[in-house]
Amino acid sequence: MKAPQATGNLLVLGGSSYVGRHLLPRLTAGCYTATYARNPIPDGVAFDCATMRLAECISDLALFDSALLLLGDTEPNSCVRDPERSEAVNVTGIKAVIDDLVAAGVRPIFISSEFVFDGRQGNYGESDSPNPILVYGKQKLEIEHHLKMVLEDHVILRLAKVYGETPGDGTLFTNWLTPVAEGGRLKCASDQFFSPIFVDDVVDVLLSTVDQPIRGTFHLGGPQVLSRMACLQALINAVSTLRPVDLITEPCGINDFNFPEDRPLDVSMCIDKLAAASDFHPLAVTAFCRRLAATHFGAGQAQTNGAPA
Asked: Which range marks the domain in which residue 97 is found?
């Protein structure tokens, strides 16, 4: 079967990913081509990097200027539970993607992870040596090394924990909307620190990176170093200005949750390099929580059994 013709000069590999689904609506129709693996997207092109080469789904790869690499298994638990599959996708498959892009003269923009660090130091800068302890982090770091080896004009964005504002999206603050509304008791890790970033800020940076010729490795995170418990408390504080909150928080360790691998404790990252290279002013968690609280607990918001409607 003949591969579909490309549209536009930007290739979004992994358009069905969480970030991809927020990015695509902000792109101009006809100016990009997006792929998906298991979850179809409108006008998307099916591509599984574990079993296919790019030429099988994109016949005119050289027409693209840049490619955003959002594809892969980004769930650490999944990666360690099925290491053969995650290695095929996150390492072997993505290496082949990069090689095909480089051969066609397309600039890859690789989305790496905060989990390339071991979490012993925190506030990591780009010059700090990675030392991943998670399988997922090791896979990301292997791709970083490969990209640096095959292309001098590379872009690596190490992404911090991403959160959104849509109920049910499975991200940090939206997962807490129901317990904050209903009350009771909730265990929350107080020993895990990161630099959480709002998904719209991630999309802003991706769009900027496509448009400007930055090169190298950059940390893409939020402006604050916070524990998971501090994030929950920020949401509780914001909601408390609008209505009573009857939720008792129980501090615990992140590794009390019996993950298949121990999680690194402090993967917070310094974002000064990215801020200096672009107009990057990410939203603070406190401001986000006020907005989220107003949306779901403000005046006029219907309540059903104590939970936001």
From this structure: 10-162+197-220
Distance of alpha carbon 141 from its chain centroid, rounded? 16
Residue 191 pLDDT > 60: yes
pLDDT in tens, 242-290: 999 999 999 999 999 999 999 999 999 999 999 999 889 999 999 999 9
Max Cα-Cα span within the chain: 60
User: Model pTM?
Assistant: 0.93
How far from 194 is each of 21, 114, 124, 304, CA to CA, in Å? Answer: 23, 8, 10, 33
Q: Would residue 273 count as lying in a domain?
A: no
Q: How far apart are CA 184 and CA 92, in angstroms?
A: 46
CB neighbours of residue 286 within 10 Å: 15
Give yes or no: residues 122 and 181 share one domain. Answer: no
Of the CA atoms within 13 Å of residue 287, those in its CB half-sphere come to 9
